[in-house]
């Protein structure tokens, strides 16, 4: 296909495709005239992946190049390739180690992860980026005097485990490691506002339900 | 208590407390000298609520004044008071009605809500703000070609209903409607990064679990 069709089918503008070609995020097409090149299905798949990473995931171009190399590295396991893609996503602020609420939060998060059976450290890597985001978020609850103990958070962790099962089921509908890694990035990010607004709607419903129960009691 | 103690116990600086007093978000203290006033437990409770709304919830001062009036209005039900507080929270962008993906997303969201038994319209109000945020978020999935049908979203809605049960259980530990409404605002906001990072950690764990199953298969 020509550049225009590649743009149409990927939803990425031709200017952006040219930028990705210059940055080496896409291999050059097969040149057919001095000014035109031909692109194949492989370009389309790779372009969709780069779009997921950069446009949806907001991963910087330099990091995207490393992620692409990892996702296409056949010596890595599928699990490692998904990790390479999703760990590149921007994450929240790192915790301030001098804050006493952070020390408390780390103890609670570690005890929560032990309780639900999640490993904290990833081989050769240490904790996932989300571990530090979680510690920061739990420290904010602690500092402001809201419930933040492992016991309070455990029901949410168990529900998150069920969300993750659905997340991974959605990924299995994609064929190649590249497509799965792209979908992992896109769905991790795009489902976040969906999940948060579902929770807010569910809170309205649960509040109404409890009101009705109290009225009839 | 004096202003300094009110500041210490609420975690709100004295400058901010003076600002809330000038804005009428806190009633004046009992004047004891020309320059000093005495504040009570009621001031502290109200200050904690205002802090939750403005500092945690990022609700503008004018809106906070209306929310306070609603939360202290004894003619309203408990459910209505919680709604007055949480609906004032800033919400995501409204959907663009001219976007065909938005029309598709509305159909899917309406069918999802019907499936899980949530009412879309709130008496005299229409849909909750989170309904529009959800439509916008689902439209983004639709537009980019990711799974966004009611069938795909239903498992997440059922998990959100369980999150809401825990959310409301946490609120019931607070005594007064004012404290519950403040906790509703604070926990809605402060638990969001907790829930999102728990999901990302759970995804790592689920990916590892599937890898282990595949290896042993």
UniProtKB/TrEMBL annotation, chains A, B:
InterPro entries: DNA-bd_dom_put_sf (IPR009061), MerR-type_HTH_dom (IPR000551), MerR_fam (IPR047057). CDD domains: HTH_MerR-like_sg5 (cd04780). Keywords: DNA-binding. It comes from the Bacteria. Residues 1-70 form the HTH merR-type domain. GO terms for molecular function: DNA binding; DNA-binding transcription factor activity. This is Transcriptional regulator.
């Amino acid at each position: 296909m020509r550049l225009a069709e590649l743009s149409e089918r990927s939803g990425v503008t031709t200017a952006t495709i040219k930028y990705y070609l210059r940055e080496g995020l896409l291999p050059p097409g097969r040149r057919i005239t001095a000014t035109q090149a031909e692109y194949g299905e492989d370009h389309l798949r790779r372009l969709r992946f780069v779009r997921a990473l950069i446009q949806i995931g907001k991963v910087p171009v330099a990091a995207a190049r490393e992620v692409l190399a990892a996702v296409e590295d056949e010596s890595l396991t599928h699990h490692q390739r998904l990790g390479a893609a999703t760990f590149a996503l921007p994450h929240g602020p790192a915790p301030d180690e001098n804050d006493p609420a952070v020390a408390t939060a780390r103890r609670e998060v570690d005890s929560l992860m032990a309780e639900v059976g999640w490993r904290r450290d990833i081989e050769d890597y240490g904790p996932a980026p989300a571990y530090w985001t979680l510690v920061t978020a739990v420290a904010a609850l602690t500092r402001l005097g809201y419930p933040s103990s492992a016991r309070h958070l455990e029901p949410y962790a168990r529900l998150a485990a069920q969300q993750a099962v659905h997340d991974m089921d959605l990924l299995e509908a994609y064929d190649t490691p590249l497509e799965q890694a792209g979908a992992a990035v896109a769905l991790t990010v795009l489902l976040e506002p969906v999940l948060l607004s579902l929770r807010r709607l569910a809170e309205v419903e649960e509040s109404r339900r409890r009101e009705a129960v109290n009225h009839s009691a």
